[in-house]
Amino acid sequence: MESTWKPAVQKGALPVYDEALAYVEADAAAQKARLQAVKQSNENAELVDALEIASEINLPHIRSEFTSGTYDLRRPVFRHLREQAWRLGGSLDQLVERATLMNVLPDVVPEFTPTVDLQVLFGSGAGIGDHGGSGGDILPGIFLSPAQTRAAPQIIATAFHNDERKYTVMLVDPDSPSDVSETFQTYVHWLVQDVPLSASQSSLPASLNDVLPYIPPHPQQGTPYHRYTMLLFEQTAPVSLGEVPREQMDVAAFAVQHQLQLRGLHFWRARWTEANKKEVSAIYNDILQIPEPRYGYVPRQDKLKDALGVRHSKYY
Predict the structure, then answer these.
(1) Nearest to 272, CA basis, from 259, 258, 283, 286
(2) Which long-range CB contacts under 8 A does 82-88 form with residues at least 24 apart?
(3) CA–CA distances in Å: residue 187 to residues 73, 166, 224, 258, 308
(4) What share of the chain is helix, strand, coil (3-state, %, to 5)?
(5) Which of 82, 77, 68, 85 is CA-nearest to residue 3?
């Protein structure tokens, strides 16, 4: 597609601007010539990609297309710019910082650096941030109500490789109470395998291979806030998950067992409140179809009270 970019300054109005454009174009032409020579000598693909990026990255029309969002990630230069914006623009740093501060790393998975930009969207809109929003892409670690997360989210996973690879998506709650162990456990809310992703395919397909269908977050009364964590694993070998229990999930052991490599991470938080208790109850009644539990601390025993509840003096 022919570029519609036009110089910001009319030619001849500012000689130094004209010189700058001429320099950029001359450098791009030199890199293109080197690229053609490398292609003819059958050098490795990584060097070809690097030279293709170098030959285009400074061209004004390339920068204009990237800024406007009208670009094709199959082209190495746009793939490089998109990854650079994610890694150096603050989004990745914010994700890792919040995941560390809120102990998602290492409570859910060991510390790692994501290589796929995993975005989670609930509803439509300009996004949901620290100060609210109607819908759209959510910031890591924000609080969402059970009403906002009743339907499964849209997931956009921007991978920076051209070839198609299979991935597994997992949504877990590491703060789910366990009646058996009387502590917290990791509960699987959603598990999808064989998701095809590449630089040109970043959305989950319409027909998903759900191993465990989506169950909406339902923070229980009397528990602290829950960290709902979305994980993206690359399938390094053919995967046959079989039956997977939702409760008592050991994410690290599961990944090792099925040769899954963690590539992406996102998370949000939720807690039970008086304002959202009806929505939580509805999830228990309509979806889980089990009695809703309520948790709390055991009252402290007063050692001075007798069997009838009469409190006596500690001195006699």
Answers:
(1) 283
(2) 82/158, 82/160, 83/117, 83/160, 86/117, 86/158
(3) 35, 23, 15, 18, 42
(4) 30, 25, 45
(5) 68
Contact 60, 91 (CB under 8 A): no
Q: Give this prediction's pTM.
A: 0.89
For residue 153, cis peptide bond before it (omega within 30 degrees of 0): no
Using CB atoms within 10 A of its CB, is residue 243 exposed (0-12), middle (13-18) or buried (19+)? exposed
Q: Are 225 and 271 spatial neighbours (Cβ–Cβ below 8 Å)? A: yes
pLDDT at 312 over 90: no
Q: Within its chain, how far is the Cα of 20 from the centroid? A: 40
Hey, which residues does 267 pair with through a beta bridge? 229
pLDDT of 181 reads 85
Strands (E), 236-284: 260-270
Residues forming beta bridges with residue 143, ordered by sequence position = 269
Helix axes 76-88 and 91-101, enclosed angle (nearest 10) = 40
Q: How far apart are CA 173 and CA 190, in angstroms?
A: 10
- CA-angle at 8, arms to 7 and 14, nearest 5°: 90
Mean of the per-residue pLDDT values of the chain: 92
Compute the average pLDDT of residues 48-65.
93
Beginning with the edge strand found earlier in the chain, give each strand of the sheet holding 154-158 in spatial order.
136-137, 117-122, 154-158
> What gap in Å lies between CA 21 and CA 5, rounded to an integer?
13
**CB-CB neighbours of 298 under 10 Å:** 5
Query: If residue 170 lies in a helix (H) or strand (E), which one and from where to where?
Result: strand 165-178
- Count helices and strands in the chain by DSSP H and E runs: 8, 8
